[in-house]
Write a structure and sequence with these properties.
Length: about 300
């Protein structure tokens, strides 16, 4: 029976499920797991997580190169700044995954940067960039490169399905980190010293739910934000109340604020200031890439 290219196979669904489970088991190892996944599925020589300042070309990266981890990708800032995939992400409207073959023009293909790249990778190579977040001049993405053939329709369809999961998890991990550190919004003092959420026995997810409850969100709104069911949110609420020894939302929020639990005060006060983005690191709700203007771009 012929399989439709756009339909996920059982193997692909299992891989996405394994990635999600790896986040729940060990969030600190999630992004290395993503790079390993890209390297395996795409038969890629390079797979990594990137944070780029555009157009200056400043770059932070964590790269899996031929099975070994390195903190640097072998590109200079000037090469990064003019790279077609980076430029497309920085200036584009459609923020779906893109391959180098789709965005490279004749100017790039005849440029010195392209010649250097070909020599560095020992011949022609295919590349793909998966946007995660655009924040001011900072671009957050994961990408992969391999020698030889371009990416086929099956591989592209898999990346289209993978992107919403990565965008959502990047958002979740970033927000969880912000809440656990108790970062205050711009112009506001940090939360008063007090026990961390973990000291009260709250999990990362319960910490996020508590902060969103303090923000006035309903279980349905929280469910939509986190990409889970409203019933699951209610179960989180019950566990939060039990751990804090309260019986309703108001007392849970008041107690958390009084104890200075990291994140609750700052979360209810407003958005966090821009921080040095822990790349990646967050969440399955909206499969959107968020730009610096607050605009959301639907990904496919």
């Amino acid at each position: 029976m012929m399989q439709i290219v756009g339909a996920p196979s059982h193997a692909e669904l299992n891989r996405l499920l394994d990635l999600t489970i790896s986040l729940l088991d060990n969030p600190h190892e999630f992004w290395p797991a993503v790079c390993g996944e890209l390297a395996a599925v795409l038969h890629a020589r390079l797979a990594g997580c990137f944070q780029v300042r555009w157009p200056s070309g400043g770059i932070w990266s964590q790269v899996l190169d031929g099975g070994a981890w390195t903190g640097r990708i072998p590109w200079t800032p000037s090469e990064v700044a003019v790279h077609p995939l980076v430029r497309s992400f920085a200036t584009g409207v459609d923020l779906a995954p893109r391959t180098l073959g789709e965005v490279a023009d004749d100017g790039w293909l005849t440029s010195e940067e392209h010649v250097v790249a070909r020599e560095r990778f020992e011949g022609s190579f295919a590349q793909v960039l998966i946007p995660l977040r655009r924040a001011g001049s900072e671009l957050h993405y994961v990408g992969a490169a391999r020698t030889g053939r371009e990416f086929n329709d099956r591989e592209r369809a898999y990346l289209d399905r993978l992107q919403p999961l990565l965008v959502a998890i990047e958002r979740h991990l970033r927000e969880t980190d912000r809440l656990r550190r108790g970062l205050a919004p711009i112009g506001e003092p940090p939360a008063l010293p007090g026990p961390r959420a973990a000291d009260a026995g709250l999990t990362d997810r319960e910490t996020v739910v508590l902060a969103l409850l303090a923000d006035g969100l309903s279980p349905v709104a929280i469910a939509r934000r986190l990409g889970i069911s409203a019933r699951t949110v209610v179960k989180h609420q019950e566990k939060i109340y039990r751990k804090l020894g309260v019986h309703d939302r108001v007392n849970a929020v008041l107690l958390a604020q009084r104890l200075g639990l990291a994140g609750v005060r700052s979360a209810s006060a407003g958005p966090a200031p821009p921080t040095r983005a822990e790349l990646p690191p967050a969440g399955l709700v909206a499969p959107d890439v968020v730009t610096d203007t607050g605009e959301k771009h639907r990904v496919r």
